[in-house]
Amino acid sequence: MVVKPENIQELALELGRAMTEMKSRLRQQIRAKISEYDPDLSFELLEIIGLLWRQDGINQQEIADIVSKDKSSVTYLINSLVKRDLVKRVENKDDRRNKQIYLTPRGRKKRETIFPWVLELYRQAAGDLGEDEIRDAISLVKKMTTNLG
User: What is the DSSP letter of 55?
Assistant: First the structure.
């Protein structure tokens, strides 16, 4: 039996649970697809590659912040991507200690095979939702995140 939330706190808690469940299901399906297309990649590696497809040239700290991992974990993942010739580190001209991460040609080429099925999973998740519903949901989650500080 499902208990209906009675107040704003319980509704917010239920929203958090629903978002966690959706992320978990997407992660499971992405992991299953990765094993079909490229068993050498993990979900975490793909997460960083996907981020760089959208924002190539950001630094390790920015990557860590966006994927919600500590910098040492991201360093380990980036080292793994460098060994696979999927990304490269480039010194920042203003701060040599700060390395920016760029996709290599091989890393960009992965997009051709991986990105279409990732987008298909998100299309499946969207189902019959309209663009406005999704934009409203994004706005709602961003406001709640801002409320947390």
Answer: S
What contacts 129, CB < 8 A, 6 or more positions away? none
* For the chain, domain boundaries: 10-123
Least confident of 12-21, 48-57, 67-76, 88-97: 88-97
**Residue 88 host element (H or E):** strand 87-91
The full length of the chain comes to 149
Cβ-Cβ contacts under 8 Å for 62 (sequence gap 6 or more): 55
Residue 95 has pLDDT above 70, yes or no: yes
Q: List the beta bridge partners of residue 88.
A: 102
Other C-beta atoms lying within 10 Å of the C-beta of residue 118: 19
- Is the domain spanning 10-123 CATH 1.10.10.10? The answer is yes
